[in-house]
Amino acid sequence: xxxxxxxxxxIRGSVLLSVDxxxxxxxxxxxxxxxxxxxxKHLKNVLSAITQQQLQSYDAxxxxxxxxxxxxxxELNELVKGSALYDRTRFKGTAWRKERETLMxxxxxxxxxxxxxxxxxxxxxxxxxxxxxxxxxxxxxxSTKAEWEAWTLLADAAKARAIGEWEGWKLKRDxxxxxxxxxxxxxxxxxxxxxxxxxRDWLKKNVFNNKCAYCExxxxxxxxxxxxxxxxxxxxxxxxxxxxxxxxxxxEDGEEMTHPGYFWLAYHWQNLLPSCExxxxxxxxxxxxxxxxxxxAVKRLKDAEINALLDNITRSMRAAGTFYLExxxxxxxxxxxxxxPYYDKPEDHIYFQxxxxxxxxxxSKQGDVSIKVYNLNETTKRTARSQEQHDARGRxxxxxxxxxxxxxVELKKAAQKxxxxxxxxxxxxxxxxxxxxHERFERTRYxxxxxxxxxxxxx
Length: 459
Hints:
The chain is mainly alpha-helical. Helix content is 43%, strand content 7%. The chain has helices at 25-34, 38-46, 49-56, 66-81, 101-115, 124-135, 144-179, 193-206, 303-307, 327-334, 365-373, 379-401, 408-423, 430-441, 448-451; strands at 225-228, 236-238, 244-246, 248-250, 256-258, 272-275, 299-300, 314-315, 322-324, 350-352, 358-360. Strands 7-9-8 form a 3-stranded antiparallel β-sheet, with no helix packed on it. Strands 1-6 form a two-stranded antiparallel sheet. Helix 5 packs across helix 7 (144-179).
Protein backbone atom coordinates (compact mmCIF):
# COMPACT_ATOMS: atom_id res chain seq x y z
CA UNK A 1 0.00 0.00 0.00
CA UNK A 2 1.15 3.53 -0.75
CA UNK A 3 -0.15 6.99 0.13
CA UNK A 4 -2.49 8.18 -2.61
CA UNK A 5 -2.90 11.93 -2.94
CA UNK A 6 -6.31 12.57 -4.45
CA UNK A 7 -8.46 15.67 -4.08
CA UNK A 8 -11.65 15.85 -6.19
CA UNK A 9 -11.39 19.64 -6.21
CA UNK A 10 -8.16 19.29 -8.19
CA ILE A 11 -9.55 17.11 -10.98
CA ARG A 12 -8.51 18.76 -14.21
CA GLY A 13 -10.97 20.03 -16.75
CA SER A 14 -14.52 21.23 -16.54
CA VAL A 15 -18.04 20.19 -17.40
CA LEU A 16 -18.04 23.09 -19.87
CA LEU A 17 -16.17 22.91 -23.16
CA SER A 18 -12.85 24.62 -23.74
CA VAL A 19 -10.60 24.97 -26.77
CA ASP A 20 -8.47 22.09 -25.46
CA UNK A 21 -11.54 19.83 -25.42
CA UNK A 22 -12.01 20.08 -29.17
CA UNK A 23 -10.08 17.17 -30.65
CA UNK A 24 -11.19 18.08 -34.17
CA UNK A 25 -13.04 21.40 -34.37
CA UNK A 26 -13.29 21.29 -38.18
CA UNK A 27 -15.01 17.90 -38.08
CA UNK A 28 -17.43 19.16 -35.42
CA UNK A 29 -18.30 22.18 -37.56
CA UNK A 30 -18.94 19.95 -40.59
CA UNK A 31 -21.18 17.61 -38.62
CA UNK A 32 -23.21 20.51 -37.27
CA UNK A 33 -23.40 22.11 -40.72
CA UNK A 34 -24.56 18.90 -42.42
CA UNK A 35 -26.87 18.00 -39.52
CA UNK A 36 -27.35 14.36 -40.54
CA UNK A 37 -27.90 12.83 -37.08
CA UNK A 38 -30.76 13.91 -34.75
CA UNK A 39 -28.52 15.64 -32.17
CA UNK A 40 -26.69 17.67 -34.83
CA LYS A 41 -30.03 18.75 -36.30
CA HIS A 42 -31.21 19.90 -32.88
CA LEU A 43 -27.98 21.72 -32.06
CA LYS A 44 -27.85 23.47 -35.42
CA ASN A 45 -31.42 24.66 -35.06
CA VAL A 46 -30.81 26.27 -31.66
CA LEU A 47 -27.54 27.97 -32.60
CA SER A 48 -27.71 31.71 -33.26
CA ALA A 49 -28.55 32.88 -36.79
CA ILE A 50 -25.05 34.37 -37.19
CA THR A 51 -23.35 31.11 -36.20
CA GLN A 52 -25.64 29.14 -38.51
CA GLN A 53 -24.67 31.42 -41.40
CA GLN A 54 -20.97 31.00 -40.60
CA LEU A 55 -21.38 27.22 -40.53
CA GLN A 56 -23.24 27.20 -43.83
CA SER A 57 -20.49 29.16 -45.58
CA TYR A 58 -17.65 27.23 -43.91
CA ASP A 59 -15.24 25.62 -46.36
CA ALA A 60 -14.08 22.34 -44.85
CA UNK A 61 -10.90 22.41 -46.92
CA UNK A 62 -9.82 25.45 -44.93
CA UNK A 63 -8.92 25.59 -41.25
CA UNK A 64 -11.75 26.52 -38.90
CA UNK A 65 -11.61 30.27 -38.15
CA UNK A 66 -11.00 31.06 -34.49
CA UNK A 67 -14.08 33.27 -34.46
CA UNK A 68 -16.35 30.38 -35.51
CA UNK A 69 -14.62 27.96 -33.16
CA UNK A 70 -15.07 30.33 -30.21
CA UNK A 71 -18.69 31.02 -31.13
CA UNK A 72 -19.42 27.27 -31.20
CA UNK A 73 -17.78 26.76 -27.81
CA UNK A 74 -19.72 29.65 -26.23
CA GLU A 75 -23.07 28.60 -27.65
CA LEU A 76 -22.61 24.90 -26.95
CA ASN A 77 -21.70 25.75 -23.37
CA GLU A 78 -24.93 27.71 -23.00
CA LEU A 79 -26.73 24.60 -24.18
CA VAL A 80 -24.78 22.44 -21.71
CA LYS A 81 -25.94 24.72 -18.87
CA GLY A 82 -29.44 25.06 -20.27
CA SER A 83 -32.28 22.68 -21.01
CA ALA A 84 -31.97 18.91 -21.47
CA LEU A 85 -30.39 17.69 -24.69
CA TYR A 86 -31.65 14.21 -23.97
CA ASP A 87 -34.86 13.17 -25.66
CA ARG A 88 -35.89 9.55 -26.09
CA THR A 89 -36.73 10.05 -29.74
CA ARG A 90 -33.53 11.97 -30.43
CA PHE A 91 -31.34 9.25 -28.91
CA LYS A 92 -33.43 6.21 -29.83
CA GLY A 93 -31.19 3.21 -30.53
CA THR A 94 -28.02 4.95 -29.35
CA ALA A 95 -25.37 2.50 -28.14
CA TRP A 96 -23.35 4.07 -25.36
CA ARG A 97 -19.69 3.18 -25.10
CA LYS A 98 -19.24 0.12 -22.90
CA GLU A 99 -17.24 1.93 -20.23
CA ARG A 100 -19.92 4.63 -20.05
CA GLU A 101 -23.09 2.55 -20.44
CA THR A 102 -23.92 2.21 -16.74
CA LEU A 103 -23.23 5.88 -16.05
CA MET A 104 -25.29 7.12 -18.99
CA UNK A 105 -28.32 4.97 -18.22
CA UNK A 106 -28.30 5.83 -14.52
CA UNK A 107 -27.80 9.55 -15.11
CA UNK A 108 -30.51 9.68 -17.79
CA UNK A 109 -32.94 7.96 -15.44
CA UNK A 110 -32.21 10.37 -12.60
CA UNK A 111 -32.34 13.48 -14.77
CA UNK A 112 -35.56 12.40 -16.48
CA UNK A 113 -37.24 11.96 -13.11
CA UNK A 114 -36.03 15.33 -11.83
CA UNK A 115 -36.85 17.22 -15.05
CA UNK A 116 -40.55 16.74 -14.30
CA UNK A 117 -40.08 18.87 -11.21
CA UNK A 118 -39.90 22.69 -11.44
CA UNK A 119 -36.51 22.76 -9.72
CA UNK A 120 -33.62 22.42 -12.19
CA UNK A 121 -31.65 19.21 -11.76
CA UNK A 122 -27.97 19.52 -10.86
CA UNK A 123 -26.98 16.58 -13.04
CA UNK A 124 -28.31 18.11 -16.24
CA UNK A 125 -25.09 19.88 -17.24
CA UNK A 126 -23.08 16.68 -16.67
CA UNK A 127 -25.49 14.67 -18.79
CA UNK A 128 -25.49 17.26 -21.58
CA UNK A 129 -21.68 17.26 -21.72
CA UNK A 130 -21.49 13.46 -21.67
CA UNK A 131 -24.12 13.20 -24.41
CA UNK A 132 -22.00 15.43 -26.65
CA UNK A 133 -18.95 13.31 -25.95
CA UNK A 134 -20.84 10.12 -26.77
CA UNK A 135 -22.22 11.45 -30.03
CA UNK A 136 -19.02 13.21 -31.11
CA UNK A 137 -16.23 10.90 -29.85
CA UNK A 138 -13.78 11.98 -32.56
CA UNK A 139 -14.49 15.66 -32.06
CA UNK A 140 -14.91 16.21 -28.29
CA UNK A 141 -12.56 14.90 -25.60
CA UNK A 142 -13.81 13.02 -22.56
CA SER A 143 -14.18 15.09 -19.41
CA THR A 144 -13.06 13.21 -16.30
CA LYS A 145 -14.52 16.12 -14.31
CA ALA A 146 -17.99 15.57 -15.81
CA GLU A 147 -17.74 11.83 -15.13
CA TRP A 148 -16.70 12.45 -11.53
CA GLU A 149 -19.49 14.94 -10.87
CA ALA A 150 -22.02 12.61 -12.47
CA TRP A 151 -20.98 9.68 -10.28
CA THR A 152 -21.01 11.95 -7.23
CA LEU A 153 -24.58 13.04 -7.94
CA LEU A 154 -25.70 9.45 -8.39
CA ALA A 155 -23.90 8.44 -5.18
CA ASP A 156 -25.52 11.25 -3.18
CA ALA A 157 -28.96 10.19 -4.40
CA ALA A 158 -28.27 6.52 -3.58
CA LYS A 159 -27.02 7.50 -0.11
CA ALA A 160 -30.23 9.45 0.53
CA ARG A 161 -32.29 6.42 -0.44
CA ALA A 162 -30.27 4.14 1.87
CA ILE A 163 -30.76 6.54 4.79
CA GLY A 164 -34.46 6.73 3.95
CA GLU A 165 -34.70 2.95 4.22
CA TRP A 166 -32.99 2.99 7.61
CA GLU A 167 -35.27 5.69 8.97
CA GLY A 168 -38.31 3.93 7.50
CA TRP A 169 -37.23 0.71 9.21
CA LYS A 170 -36.80 2.57 12.50
CA LEU A 171 -40.39 3.84 12.30
CA LYS A 172 -41.67 0.33 11.57
CA ARG A 173 -39.68 -1.02 14.49
CA ASP A 174 -41.13 1.65 16.79
CA UNK A 175 -44.62 0.62 15.75
CA UNK A 176 -43.83 -3.07 16.20
CA UNK A 177 -42.52 -2.47 19.72
CA UNK A 178 -45.94 -1.16 20.80
CA UNK A 179 -47.61 -4.53 20.19
CA UNK A 180 -44.76 -6.95 19.39
CA UNK A 181 -47.13 -8.89 17.17
CA UNK A 182 -45.42 -11.06 14.58
CA UNK A 183 -41.74 -10.94 13.77
CA UNK A 184 -39.72 -7.81 14.38
CA UNK A 185 -38.99 -5.90 11.15
CA UNK A 186 -35.50 -6.51 9.76
CA UNK A 187 -33.29 -3.87 8.18
CA UNK A 188 -32.37 -5.04 4.68
CA UNK A 189 -31.24 -2.06 2.58
CA UNK A 190 -31.52 -2.21 -1.20
CA UNK A 191 -28.00 -1.47 -2.34
CA UNK A 192 -27.40 -0.12 -5.83
CA UNK A 193 -24.39 -2.07 -7.05
CA UNK A 194 -24.01 -0.17 -10.31
CA UNK A 195 -23.29 3.09 -8.50
CA UNK A 196 -20.40 1.87 -6.39
CA UNK A 197 -19.07 -0.27 -9.23
CA UNK A 198 -19.01 2.82 -11.43
CA UNK A 199 -17.12 4.78 -8.79
CA ARG A 200 -14.77 1.82 -8.38
CA ASP A 201 -13.93 1.78 -12.08
CA TRP A 202 -13.40 5.56 -12.15
CA LEU A 203 -11.08 5.43 -9.12
CA LYS A 204 -9.28 2.33 -10.37
CA LYS A 205 -8.45 4.02 -13.67
CA ASN A 206 -7.90 7.64 -12.66
CA VAL A 207 -6.49 7.39 -9.13
CA PHE A 208 -5.05 3.90 -8.54
CA ASN A 209 -3.64 3.26 -12.03
CA ASN A 210 -5.46 -0.09 -12.25
CA LYS A 211 -3.77 -1.41 -9.11
CA CYS A 212 -5.18 -2.85 -5.90
CA ALA A 213 -5.48 -0.20 -3.18
CA TYR A 214 -4.15 -2.66 -0.58
CA CYS A 215 -1.42 -4.85 -2.05
CA GLU A 216 -0.67 -2.81 -5.24
CA UNK A 217 -1.10 -5.84 -7.50
CA UNK A 218 -2.22 -5.08 -11.03
CA UNK A 219 -5.90 -5.58 -11.75
CA UNK A 220 -5.87 -6.92 -15.32
CA UNK A 221 -8.40 -9.02 -17.19
CA UNK A 222 -10.51 -8.99 -14.04
CA UNK A 223 -12.86 -6.18 -13.08
CA UNK A 224 -11.72 -6.20 -9.50
CA UNK A 225 -13.83 -6.09 -6.38
CA UNK A 226 -15.39 -2.99 -4.95
CA UNK A 227 -13.92 -2.96 -1.51
CA UNK A 228 -15.96 -1.08 1.05
CA UNK A 229 -13.28 -0.03 3.51
CA UNK A 230 -15.90 0.20 6.23
CA UNK A 231 -18.23 -2.72 5.47
CA UNK A 232 -21.63 -1.76 4.10
CA UNK A 233 -23.34 -4.71 5.82
CA UNK A 234 -22.08 -7.14 8.42
CA UNK A 235 -19.08 -5.97 10.46
CA UNK A 236 -16.68 -8.48 12.01
CA UNK A 237 -13.46 -8.52 14.02
CA UNK A 238 -10.98 -11.29 14.80
CA UNK A 239 -10.54 -12.39 18.39
CA UNK A 240 -7.07 -13.14 19.73
CA UNK A 241 -7.47 -16.83 18.94
CA UNK A 242 -8.35 -15.97 15.32
CA UNK A 243 -12.09 -16.60 15.71
CA UNK A 244 -14.32 -14.17 13.77
CA UNK A 245 -16.84 -12.22 15.85
CA UNK A 246 -19.83 -10.21 14.61
CA UNK A 247 -19.81 -6.69 16.06
CA UNK A 248 -22.61 -5.54 18.35
CA UNK A 249 -23.36 -1.89 19.09
CA UNK A 250 -25.74 0.30 21.05
CA UNK A 251 -27.75 2.23 18.46
CA GLU A 252 -28.87 5.87 18.54
CA ASP A 253 -31.97 4.87 20.50
CA GLY A 254 -29.92 3.18 23.22
CA GLU A 255 -30.73 -0.39 22.17
CA GLU A 256 -28.18 -3.15 21.65
CA MET A 257 -28.18 -4.60 18.14
CA THR A 258 -25.95 -6.21 15.56
CA HIS A 259 -23.98 -3.52 13.73
CA PRO A 260 -26.05 -2.74 10.59
CA GLY A 261 -22.94 -1.86 8.60
CA TYR A 262 -21.89 1.57 7.42
CA PHE A 263 -24.68 1.57 4.84
CA TRP A 264 -24.65 5.36 4.42
CA LEU A 265 -21.02 5.12 3.29
CA ALA A 266 -21.76 2.47 0.66
CA TYR A 267 -21.37 5.08 -2.11
CA HIS A 268 -18.81 7.41 -0.48
CA TRP A 269 -15.70 7.70 -2.62
CA GLN A 270 -13.44 7.67 0.43
CA ASN A 271 -14.97 4.34 1.44
CA LEU A 272 -14.66 2.76 -2.02
CA LEU A 273 -11.31 1.20 -2.82
CA PRO A 274 -10.55 -0.99 -5.85
CA SER A 275 -9.13 -4.32 -4.73
CA CYS A 276 -7.74 -7.40 -6.42
CA GLU A 277 -9.34 -10.82 -6.23
CA UNK A 278 -6.96 -11.89 -3.46
CA UNK A 279 -7.59 -8.94 -1.15
CA UNK A 280 -11.38 -9.03 -0.98
CA UNK A 281 -12.13 -12.75 -1.03
CA UNK A 282 -11.58 -15.62 1.40
CA UNK A 283 -8.40 -14.94 3.35
CA UNK A 284 -8.55 -11.22 2.57
CA UNK A 285 -10.22 -8.27 4.25
CA UNK A 286 -13.88 -9.10 3.47
CA UNK A 287 -16.10 -7.52 6.17
CA UNK A 288 -13.47 -7.28 8.91
CA UNK A 289 -12.95 -3.86 10.46
CA UNK A 290 -10.88 -3.74 13.66
CA UNK A 291 -10.87 -0.59 15.81
CA UNK A 292 -9.06 0.45 18.98
CA UNK A 293 -12.12 1.89 20.72
CA UNK A 294 -15.79 1.02 20.06
CA UNK A 295 -17.53 0.63 16.71
CA UNK A 296 -19.99 3.36 15.82
CA ALA A 297 -23.02 3.32 13.53
CA VAL A 298 -25.74 5.97 13.30
CA LYS A 299 -24.87 8.24 16.21
CA ARG A 300 -26.65 10.68 18.51
CA LEU A 301 -24.33 13.55 19.41
CA LYS A 302 -24.22 16.30 21.98
CA ASP A 303 -23.74 19.94 20.93
CA ALA A 304 -20.02 19.94 21.78
CA GLU A 305 -19.51 16.79 19.68
CA ILE A 306 -21.41 18.31 16.76
CA ASN A 307 -19.24 21.43 16.84
CA ALA A 308 -16.09 19.25 16.78
CA LEU A 309 -17.04 17.38 13.59
CA LEU A 310 -14.49 17.67 10.78
CA ASP A 311 -16.64 17.08 7.72
CA ASN A 312 -20.08 17.59 6.19
CA ILE A 313 -22.95 16.74 8.47
CA THR A 314 -25.80 14.47 7.39
CA ARG A 315 -28.58 14.85 9.92
CA SER A 316 -31.38 12.42 10.60
CA MET A 317 -34.85 13.55 9.57
CA ARG A 318 -36.30 11.23 12.20
CA ALA A 319 -34.43 11.97 15.40
CA ALA A 320 -32.98 15.30 16.51
CA GLY A 321 -29.26 15.24 17.23
CA THR A 322 -28.70 12.03 15.27
CA PHE A 323 -26.08 11.95 12.51
CA TYR A 324 -24.63 9.80 9.74
CA LEU A 325 -20.94 10.53 10.19
CA GLU A 326 -18.25 10.95 7.56
CA UNK A 327 -15.12 8.71 7.54
CA UNK A 328 -12.73 11.11 9.30
CA UNK A 329 -15.17 11.73 12.14
CA UNK A 330 -15.74 8.00 12.53
CA UNK A 331 -11.95 7.55 12.69
CA UNK A 332 -11.78 9.87 15.69
CA UNK A 333 -14.54 8.05 17.54
CA UNK A 334 -13.55 4.48 16.66
CA UNK A 335 -9.77 4.59 16.59
CA UNK A 336 -9.39 2.97 13.17
CA UNK A 337 -6.63 0.35 13.08
CA UNK A 338 -6.51 -0.40 9.35
CA UNK A 339 -4.28 1.75 7.17
CA UNK A 340 -6.10 3.77 4.51
CA PRO A 341 -4.31 4.99 1.33
CA TYR A 342 -5.96 8.43 1.43
CA TYR A 343 -5.37 9.23 5.08
CA ASP A 344 -2.17 7.45 6.13
CA LYS A 345 1.48 7.15 5.15
CA PRO A 346 1.79 3.36 5.00
CA GLU A 347 5.59 3.58 4.84
CA ASP A 348 5.53 4.81 8.46
CA HIS A 349 3.91 1.52 9.47
CA ILE A 350 5.00 -1.20 7.01
CA TYR A 351 8.28 -2.05 5.32
CA PHE A 352 9.22 -4.85 2.93
CA GLN A 353 12.12 -7.27 3.20
CA UNK A 354 14.29 -8.30 0.24
CA UNK A 355 12.06 -11.34 -0.32
CA UNK A 356 8.88 -9.27 -0.51
CA UNK A 357 7.81 -10.10 3.04
CA UNK A 358 5.81 -7.33 4.76
CA UNK A 359 6.69 -6.45 8.35
CA UNK A 360 5.42 -3.86 10.81
CA UNK A 361 7.78 -0.88 11.06
CA UNK A 362 8.85 0.05 14.60
CA UNK A 363 6.25 -2.40 15.96
CA SER A 364 3.43 -0.28 14.53
CA LYS A 365 0.09 -1.67 15.68
CA GLN A 366 -1.65 -0.31 12.58
CA GLY A 367 1.04 -1.88 10.44
CA ASP A 368 0.74 -5.26 12.14
CA VAL A 369 -3.07 -5.31 12.00
CA SER A 370 -3.14 -4.16 8.37
CA ILE A 371 -0.66 -6.84 7.27
CA LYS A 372 -2.84 -9.51 8.85
CA VAL A 373 -6.26 -8.25 7.73
CA TYR A 374 -5.13 -7.40 4.18
CA ASN A 375 -3.20 -10.70 4.13
CA LEU A 376 -0.23 -8.94 2.56
CA ASN A 377 2.03 -11.94 3.03
CA GLU A 378 -0.17 -14.35 1.11
CA THR A 379 2.17 -16.49 -0.99
CA THR A 380 1.06 -15.28 -4.42
CA LYS A 381 1.35 -11.62 -3.42
CA ARG A 382 4.72 -12.05 -1.71
CA THR A 383 6.20 -13.99 -4.65
CA ALA A 384 5.05 -11.41 -7.21
CA ARG A 385 6.31 -8.60 -5.00
CA SER A 386 9.72 -10.23 -4.63
CA GLN A 387 10.02 -10.73 -8.40
CA GLU A 388 9.22 -7.08 -9.04
CA GLN A 389 11.84 -6.06 -6.47
CA HIS A 390 14.44 -8.17 -8.29
CA ASP A 391 13.53 -6.77 -11.73
CA ALA A 392 13.37 -3.19 -10.45
CA ARG A 393 16.83 -3.36 -8.89
CA GLY A 394 18.37 -4.37 -12.22
CA ARG A 395 16.49 -1.70 -14.16
CA UNK A 396 17.36 0.99 -11.60
CA UNK A 397 21.06 0.18 -11.86
CA UNK A 398 20.80 0.32 -15.67
CA UNK A 399 19.15 3.75 -15.51
CA UNK A 400 21.83 5.14 -13.22
CA UNK A 401 24.62 3.57 -15.28
CA UNK A 402 23.80 5.77 -18.28
CA UNK A 403 23.45 8.91 -16.15
CA UNK A 404 26.37 11.26 -15.56
CA UNK A 405 27.71 10.24 -12.15
CA UNK A 406 28.87 13.78 -11.42
CA UNK A 407 25.59 15.47 -12.33
CA UNK A 408 23.43 15.31 -9.20
CA VAL A 409 20.53 17.10 -10.91
CA GLU A 410 20.41 14.45 -13.65
CA LEU A 411 20.66 11.63 -11.10
CA LYS A 412 17.69 13.09 -9.23
CA LYS A 413 15.67 13.37 -12.45
CA ALA A 414 16.48 9.78 -13.37
CA ALA A 415 15.49 8.48 -9.93
CA GLN A 416 12.30 10.53 -9.95
CA LYS A 417 11.29 9.30 -13.39
CA UNK A 418 12.00 5.71 -12.38
CA UNK A 419 9.98 5.86 -9.15
CA UNK A 420 7.12 7.74 -10.82
CA UNK A 421 6.50 4.61 -12.89
CA UNK A 422 5.55 2.99 -9.60
CA UNK A 423 4.06 5.73 -7.45
CA UNK A 424 2.18 7.55 -10.23
CA UNK A 425 2.19 4.95 -12.99
CA UNK A 426 1.09 1.39 -13.74
CA UNK A 427 3.99 -0.57 -12.25
CA UNK A 428 3.05 -2.54 -9.10
CA UNK A 429 4.55 -2.73 -5.61
CA UNK A 430 5.98 0.77 -5.30
CA UNK A 431 6.55 0.52 -1.55
CA UNK A 432 8.41 -2.81 -1.81
CA UNK A 433 10.54 -1.56 -4.71
CA UNK A 434 11.45 1.61 -2.83
CA UNK A 435 12.48 -0.41 0.22
CA UNK A 436 14.72 -2.78 -1.74
CA UNK A 437 16.45 0.11 -3.54
CA HIS A 438 16.86 2.01 -0.29
CA GLU A 439 18.41 -1.07 1.33
CA ARG A 440 20.73 -1.73 -1.65
CA PHE A 441 21.98 1.84 -2.05
CA GLU A 442 21.73 3.18 1.52
CA ARG A 443 24.50 5.63 2.44
CA THR A 444 25.40 6.12 -1.22
CA ARG A 445 24.50 8.92 -3.57
CA TYR A 446 22.21 6.53 -5.49
CA UNK A 447 19.87 5.95 -2.55
CA UNK A 448 16.39 6.92 -3.84
CA UNK A 449 15.55 8.30 -0.39
CA UNK A 450 18.39 10.81 -0.82
CA UNK A 451 17.81 11.57 -4.49
CA UNK A 452 14.07 12.09 -4.04
CA UNK A 453 14.60 14.39 -1.10
CA UNK A 454 12.54 12.44 1.39
CA UNK A 455 13.35 9.42 3.48
CA UNK A 456 10.22 7.36 3.30
CA UNK A 457 11.75 5.21 6.02
CA UNK A 458 13.66 6.12 9.13
CA UNK A 459 17.22 4.81 8.78
